[in-house]
Design goal:
Number of strands: 6
Strand content: 15-25%
Strand order of the largest sheet: 2-1-3-4-5-6
Structural class: alpha/beta
Helix content: 40-55%
Largest sheet: 6 strands, mixed
Distance between the termini: 50 Å
Number of helices: 7
Length: about 210
């Protein structure tokens, strides 16, 4: 490989993303993905790589308020929050259970975020990703430093976090730098499903 490519940080990250996506597509896990506010680049990475049909059952983009309400079944008090991401992921998981043709493992992955837009924002720029599987739900949250990136820069970070959560759920160890600044901390939390809910999920698989 030419030296100018190996010393190009942007090219290195692109190569790492491609390798991560290839490994995700090589795993047996299938997913329904729901994104709102950002994260479309992650869909591009996944769908633009051969083997996407082995991984992605459906991609849902409930972009405006009514679409979000229709998707999760209620108007959330805060559209960009950890709890909303969890509810989105649960709905995505239910859809994945319905769409799969065999007893392959499935997850529901959701992202809700507020990032740079054409209209100046005065609130926080933040992102929440949730991954719901048969045993529990894992969430990833981060507050971005406003004014430090353009739309493309924040979109790229959000999309890397989505891939990070998906890769972890697929058992893929290959990771990609998230591109966070030192003052930006990824807050990762996991919660196991309560026993009654796990029994319902297991019963649905019989």
């Amino acid at each position: 490989m030419p030296k100018e490519l190996t010393n190009n940080p942007k090219k290195q990250v692109q190569n790492q993303v491609q390798k991560q996506v290839d490994l995700i597509h090589g795993s047996p896990m299938m997913v329904v993905i729901a994104i709102a506010g950002g994260g479309g680049q992650a869909l591009g990475w996944l769908l633009g790589t051969p083997g996407a049909s082995k991984t992605v059952l459906e991609a849902i983009v409930p972009y405006n308020e009514k679409a979000m309400e229709d998707f999760i079944g209620y108007p959330p008090s805060t559209y960009v929050s950890r709890s909303t991401a969890i509810d989105m992921a649960q709905c995505a998981f239910k859809k994945a259970m319905h769409l799969r043709k065999t007893h392959v493992p499935v997850i529901g992955l959701a992202c809700t975020t507020t990032i740079v837009t054409a209209v100046p924002k005065f609130g926080e720029h933040r992102c929440f990703v949730a991954v719901w599987d048969e045993t529990g739900v894992t969430t990833y949250g981060v507050k971005l430093v406003g004014g430090s990136r353009d739309r493309g820069g924040e979109e790229n970070v959000v999309s890397r976090i989505i891939l990070h959560g998906l890769a972890h759920s697929c058992g893929v160890e290959q990771d990609v730098p998230l591109g966070l600044f030192d003052e930006e901390r990824l807050d990762v939390r996991h919660m196991d499903h309560a026993a009654p809910l796990r029994r319902l999920i297991e019963a649905a698989q019989i």
